[in-house]
């Protein structure tokens, strides 16, 4: 049994850590163990859960004035922030309960957590001794979770004026909350850039790996493919995969006058040309959509497909290794969810194989795209 402690002084500077431009990433080589068994996945998961809980505990003490200053925003939606913080605590408690089921096999980061109050207590007094086996991980992890939490808080602060994946508008919107523990769904956005197009490489890689994912395509991209190649070629390209829509072009669907036509045209095209692959899902570009669109999506028989885990591979500010390691850290933290990669970023060709290799023996599963969101 390894005894885990923590230097509380680390957290005194939390409010000064993350600038608005920071994107959280964590060098996984600071973690001393490979995820070569479900038990070791749980050890790493408990560690990330407790560290995130520790930094979340610090923000709970911030009032509206302090949060505005901390996030660098003039106005914030305090109700949305409070809702987010409550939801995060409930998710952390649920995840820790799953992660502590293997404590009889390895007691690292195991504490008697029976309810939310005891989770908060244990997170509040978490300390790491200088001789701890995990000491090299602790400070980088703290910084990661402080920055990542700021990402979430900033989105909540701006919601719903700036809509995002941070919250749902109704039961017609889905993310990874309904997945079982240790299950993850791969999804791939088209994004705005035209090249590179890694779809042929990616679909072949997934088929060879006996895996699949959900591809959210732009109507104009499918139209362009059909202008160059046959329908049979298009169907062969997406063989074994699921295809949803992201609209006719990659632009915000929250203030676009023709957003409904964008969705309908894309659905008609994809459903007509890829009937075996089509799934009735709409992925809003950048998560931006209207809050009063529920009736439209229900009438169209569509669900809005959001996500929980963002590799941040679209902005080009993280290299492939950083994107992959960020994704793995969030998988350990949330233990289930929808991963949102960008198919038009070359980082994907490095990040995805690394991620699958790192988790091959960890006991996680990859959800079949044909049963997800049902």
Automatic annotation (TrEMBL):
Signal peptide: 1-18
Tagged with keyword Signal: yes
Gene3D superfamilies hit by this protein: Glycoside hydrolase/deacetylase
Matches recorded under Pfam families: Polysacc_deac_1
Source organism superkingdom: Bacteria
Domain NodB homology, residue spans: 179-304
Entry keyword set: Signal
Alphabetized PANTHER family for the sequence: 4-DEOXY-4-FORMAMIDO-L-ARABINOSE-PHOSPHOUNDECAPRENOL DEFORMYLASE ARND-RELATED (PTHR10587:SF137), GLYCOSYL TRANSFERASE-RELATED (PTHR10587)
Protein name from the UniProt record: Polysaccharide deacetylase family protein
Organism expressing this protein natively: Pseudomonas rhizophila
């Amino acid at each position: 049994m390894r005894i885990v402690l923590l230097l509380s002084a680390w957290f005194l500077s939390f409010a000064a850590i993350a600038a608005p431009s920071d994107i959280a990433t964590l060098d996984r080589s600071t973690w001393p163990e490979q995820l070569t068994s479900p038990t070791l996945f749980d050890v790493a998961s408990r560690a990330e859960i407790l560290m995130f809980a520790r930094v979340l505990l610090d923000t709970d003490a911030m009032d509206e004035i302090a949060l505005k200053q901390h996030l660098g925003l003039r106005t914030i939606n305090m109700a949305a922030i409070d809702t987010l913080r409550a939801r995060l605590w409930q998710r952390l408690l649920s995840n820790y309960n799953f992660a502590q089921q293997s404590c009889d096999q390895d007691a690292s980061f195991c504490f008697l957590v029976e309810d939310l109050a005891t989770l908060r207590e244990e997170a509040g007094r978490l300390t790491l001794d200088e001789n701890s086996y995990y000491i090299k991980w602790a400070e980088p992890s703290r910084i990661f979770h402080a920055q990542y939490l700021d990402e979430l808080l900033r989105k909540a602060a701006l919601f719903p004026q700036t809509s995002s994946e941070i919250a749902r508008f109704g039961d017609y919107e889905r993310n990874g909350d309904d997945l079982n523990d240790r299950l993850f769904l791969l999804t791939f956005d088209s994004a705005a850039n035209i090249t590179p197009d890694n779809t042929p490489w990616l679909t072949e890689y997934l088929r060879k790996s006996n895996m699949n994912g959900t591809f959210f395509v732009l109507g104009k991209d499918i139209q362009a493919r059909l202008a160059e190649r046959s329908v049979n070629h298009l169907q062969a390209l997406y063989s074994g995969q699921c295809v949803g829509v992201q609209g006719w072009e990659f632009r915000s669907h929250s203030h676009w006058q023709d957003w409904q036509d964008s969705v309908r045209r894309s659905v008609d095209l994809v459903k007509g040309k890829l009937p075996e692959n089509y799934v009735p899902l709409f992925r809003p570009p950048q998560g931006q959509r209207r809050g009063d669109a529920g009736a439209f999506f229900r009438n169209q028989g569509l669900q809005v497909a959001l996500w929980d885990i963002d590799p941040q591979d679209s902005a080009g500010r993280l290299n492939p290794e950083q994107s992959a390691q960020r994704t793995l850290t969030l998988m350990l933290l949330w233990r289930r969810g929808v991963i949102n990669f960008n198919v038009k970023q070359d980082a994907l060709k490095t990040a995805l194989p690394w991620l699958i290799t790192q988790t091959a023996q960890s006991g996680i599963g990859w959800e079949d795209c044909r049963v997800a969101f049902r």
